[in-house]
Design brief:
The complex is a heterodimer of chains A (508) and B (346).
Chain A (H helix, E strand, L loop, with lengths): L1 H13 L2 H19 L5 H15 L5 H30 L11 H9 L3 H36 L2 H14 L8 H15 L2 E2 L6 E2 L13 H19 L18 H23 L5 H15 L12 H16 L1 H7 L5 H12 L8 H4 L1 H31 L5 H20 L2 H19 L5 H23 L6 H4 L1 H32 L1
Antiparallel strand pairs in A: 1-2
Helix pairs in contact in A: 1-16, 2-4, 2-16, 3-4, 3-14, 4-5, 4-6, 4-12, 4-14, 4-16, 5-6, 6-10, 6-12, 6-13, 6-16, 7-19, 7-21, 8-19, 9-17, 9-18, 10-11, 10-12, 11-12, 17-18
Chain B lengths: L1 H26 L21 E5 L6 H15 L7 E5 L6 H10 L6 E3 L4 H7 L12 E17 L7 H10 L5 E4 L6 H12 L8 E4 L3 H9 L5 E5 H9 L3 E6 L25 E9 L4 H15 L2 H10 L2 E6 H21 L5
Parallel strand pairs in B: 1-2, 1-3, 5-6, 5-7
Antiparallel strand pairs in B: 4-7, 4-8, 4-9, 4-10
The chains are: A mainly alpha (508), B alpha/beta (346).
């Protein structure tokens, strides 16, 4: 088989000793980057470009490019492994793509199942990594063609499906979830509009031109909100520390997560291939899907293992999927792949339709190295689980300052702006009061992610159709998404109404 | 910004102390040290330099900025590290606003924008309040041209057939571009369209976040036509995925593009040049301005830079700071006129 033959050659490249070292350094740094909030994969990769340039300076150009891209890609998918750690242990998302992991990861940690959660995140990431790589090897070309066919109307309807699914994130009240969703969408309009270039709600403050930073809001409402809660509501269980009952997942845990991992991998992989969507949205969609099809949806948000397995698999698969448009078309689908593309160009390697013909060593060497790198990450992360899991046993008086320090450091590192620190504190206070009154936070942050995407795709779709809204039901893919969205909302309602009727009848 | 101010204050204090000390040393009959000369012979640069590309990674601006960084360090012209930062959004307006307001005095920040910053400042909708006058032009580096591109399987084989089709029914043809309405990609298409007698307001134009997403829309069949720059389309022409119907250059291009007619040859008497250049902040100190003017000129003469131009399909458009500024003034006048014609001027 052709692809197989090329892949073998790729392994020959990836298994050269210097490339093994480069892959290892890459995934190691990636894990660290993932653990630290603020330093995301984008800045991690960008920061390392000059370093790798000097490291590979002595090699011939083709080999230098291969080694450099192996290291940089390692940072990228390595970060997806590390991102879950602080989400689970400290309620502080390490990456925006791990925001949804806090919903069940942190409750698991509180129940003393931090080790299990971390281990499942690592295993899920590994499986997802391999799934997306197999897809990359055998299906790259046809899949990227399919992904390109998705029109703005299809994208819009998919986002609407995402919004409808939001009710699934509601805590006690659907109304409150909807309020938070709209609040998130409103916050998302702040900044320079990408379609017309008009500044909205910026009040001439340049800090607001690029909008509110997503991670700042997420860390504020989740991590700092929780910190304030712990400080202000010192209840009886102060000093009581979650004991770790078990590090490795039980057979039952593995059985429960197998489905979510596979489904999460597929959702993430396909979302990753579509340019301009990204891992954050993939993780949310995977989580919502699991909650929807679960037999015990009420367990979600209270430490369901599927709520960790699915999003963590999805974000990792998305990073693999995003490599497809980058390598086969030269179209970066996410910020990080855009930086990777910049790095390749620095080595005079133009990613795009000609990459696999002109530079087979680089393309296949990279793919093979990702197999090796994912294996390294699994081996690296499993022992680390024990070390990290111990962290949760730290008494609150040490843990709280640590969370505050990590949050502030992380948020500051994103844009080096004091404005963001003030915003972080405000979000922390707001998050505390909202959470106290049972307003769920997840719809807020998802609204913030979805807002600009919904808006831009809506405007593009309507331009195409000359302002005719029927485009959304004329396009078959879009129609399917919309039907699912309607069913998503209506089926439970109808069932509930029927259920009620039955009850009424019995009473009558 | 505050930090730089503080740093400046402190460096001033230090310098004064050093001079006082060296004076004292002179008085004592000791040898004059270099400390006193510190003011005359500039020590710039003392820190790593950041070039901001006001676009997403992977686009033409980003590529140019990364090429500058690469050539400067490969040819050892600049010893300090140069990193490239991306500030996408608003068709360069976000990056420009950020640069003009945040880094007014920061000698270690450069901006690498292109023609849209002039257009943004002139157009009515989505006006950007900042102009090239809010910065210090250091050098123009490249010239690029607009291109009208269709997919390889498109029924249109020349500009005329495309323009005729739009004239017949403008609702049938969707034009995609990587920047907002009224900005460069849009004008790339509208300038010949106006000459063809098409009402510019009837053209269906969809803006994407950067050339990458726009070309994805063309390849995926979600747009019929793509207005972009020549250099961004080269790779796709070579792989046979797209065909270019016309380019906005005054004369025929070379290499890959030698068979493509210019707008003028196709019968539309108009041209559009997209420059890319390097700017410093408005209050850049004279020593830093002199440093970059010299280094950028030297860079454009290196073999490495010429190789970069060659591989990317860019035209050498070097102009020094003063000439660049004059040229920007001329271009501003021209765009004011065009936008006026389109009824899109401020």
């Amino acid at each position: 088989m052709d692809a197989f033959h090329y892949l073998l050659n790729g392994f020959a490249t990836a298994l050269q000793w210097q490339n093994i070292i480069f892959a290892f350094v890459g995934v190691l740094i990636g894990t660290v980057v993932g653990v630290l909030p603020g330093i995301g994969p984008i800045s991690g990769v960008a920061l390392l470009i000059p370093v790798t340039a000097s490291l590979t300076g002595g090699l011939p150009p083709e080999e230098a490019a291969t080694s450099a891209i192996i290291l940089l890609a390692g940072v990228y998918y390595g970060a997806m492994y590390g991102g879950s750690t602080t989400s689970i242990l400290l309620n502080t998302p390490g990456e925006s793509s791990s925001v949804v992991t806090v919903l069940d990861g942190y409750p698991m940690a509180k129940q003393g199942r931090a080790g299990v959660a971390l281990a499942i995140a690592a295993i899920g990431s590994f499986v997802a990594g391999i799934v997306s790589l197999v897809g990359l090897v055998f299906l790259a070309e046809p899949l990227s063609d399919v992904a390109l066919k998705l029109s703005p109307a299809d994208e819009f309807s998919l986002m609407i499906l995402g919004l409808c699914a939001l009710s699934g994130l509601a805590g006690k009240s659907v109304t409150k979830a909807l309020i938070m969703t709209v609040f998130g969408l409103l916050l998302a309009t702040i900044g320079m509009d990408n379609v017309s270039g008009v500044a909205r709600f910026t009040f001439d403050m340049p800090e607001l031109y690029s909008g509110l930073e997503f991670l700042t809001i997420a860390v504020g409402v989740f991590a700092l909100g929780e910190v304030f809660k712990t400080i202000l509501e010192r209840d009886a269980n102060e000093g009581e520390i979650a004991k770790i009952s078990r590090i490795l997942p039980t057979k039952q845990d593995l059985k429960e997560s197998a489905g979510p991992i596979i489904r999460g991998s597929l959702v993430g992989f396909f979302k990753g291939i579509v340019p301009g969507s990204g891992a954050t949205l993939a993780s949310f969609l995977a989580y919502l899907l699991e909650k929807k099809i679960s037999k015990n949806p009420e367990k979600f948000g209270k430490g369901a293992i599927a709520g960790v397995a699915a999003p963590e698999s999805a974000n990792n698969a998305a990073s693999g999927g995003a490599m497809i448009p980058l390598l086969t078309l030269g179209i970066p689908g996410t910020g990080t792949t855009a930086v990777l593309m910049g790095a390749l160009i620095m080595y005079n390697v133009q990613p795009g339709p000609l990459l696999f013909d002109e530079h087979p060593t680089i393309a296949w060497g990279l793919i093979a190295s990702m197999f090796i790198g994912n294996l390294m990450l699994l081996i690296l992360n499993m022992p680390l689980v024990k070390v990290f899991a111990k962290l949760i046993e730290t008494p609150p008086k040490y843990l709280i300052p640590m969370i505050v320090a990590i949050s502030i450091f992380g948020v500051y590192a994103v844009r080096v702006s004091v404005f963001d620190l003030v915003l972080l504190l405000i979000c922390g206070v707001v998050g505390y009061f909202l959470a106290k009154n049972d307003f769920p936070m997840a719809p807020l942050v998802l609204g913030l992610v979805l807002g600009p995407m919904i808006e831009n795709n809506l405007r593009r779709a309507l331009t195409t159709s000359n302002g005719d809204f029927s485009i959304f039901i004329e396009k078959p893919v879009s129609l399917v998404f919309l039907i699912i969205a309607v069913l998503w909302i209506s089926v439970p309602l109808i069932m509930k109404m029927r259920g009620k009727k039955v009850v009424v009848n019995v009473e009558g | 910004m505050n930090q730089t101010k503080k740093w400046k204050k402190w460096s001033g204090v230090l310098l004064t102390t050093a001079m006082a000390l060296s004076l004292a040393a002179c008085g004592g009959g000791g040898g004059q040290t270099a400390a006193g000369g510190g003011k005359a012979a500039s020590t710039y640069p003392e820190k790593p330099i950041v070039i901001t590309a006001p676009s997403g990674a992977g686009g033409g601006l980003d590529k140019t900025a990364r090429s500058v960084a690469k050539v400067m360090s490969a040819s050892k012209l600049v010893e300090k590290t140069i990193t490239v930062e991306n500030k996408p959004g608003g068709g360069q307006a976000v990056g420009l606003a950020d640069f003009v307001t945040q880094d007014k005095k920061n000698n270690y920040k450069l901006l690498l924008p292109s023609t849209p910053i002039i257009i943004n400042n002139l157009k009515k909708e989505g006006n950007s309040p900042h102009s090239y006058n809010d910065m210090t032009p250091l050098a123009q580096l490249t010239k690029d041209y607009g291109a009208i591109v269709v997919a390889a399987g498109s029924p249109y084989n020349n500009l005329k057939s495309l323009m005729d089709a739009i004239k017949a029914d403008p609702t049938k043809v969707t034009v995609a571009g990587g920047s907002a309405p009224g900005s460069l990609d849009h004008l790339t298409f509208l300038m010949p369209a106006v000459k063809a007698g098409i009402d510019p307001k009837s053209v269906k134009y969809i803006s994407y976040d950067g050339g990458g997403e726009a070309i994805a829309a063309l390849l995926g069949g979600n747009a019929d036509v793509l207005a972009t720059d020549v250099s961004g389309a080269g790779e796709y022409v070579k792989s046979g995925k797209v065909k270019i119907l016309g380019v906005s250059s005054p004369e025929r291009l070379k290499g890959t593009f030698k068979d493509i007619p210019t707008y003028k040859e196709a019968g539309y008497d108009t041209e559009l040049i997209n420059w890319r250049g390097v700017f410093g902040p408005k209050d850049m100190t004279p020593d830093a301005v002199a440093y970059w003017e010299e280094k950028l000129k030297a860079m454009t003469q290196t073999a490495e830079w010429k190789a970069e131009l060659e591989t990317n399909g860019w035209d050498d458009g070097y102009k020094n700071g003063a000439d660049f500024k004059t040229y920007l003034g001329d271009q501003e006048k021209m765009f004011k006129e065009i936008l006026g014609l389109l009824n899109m001027a401020k």
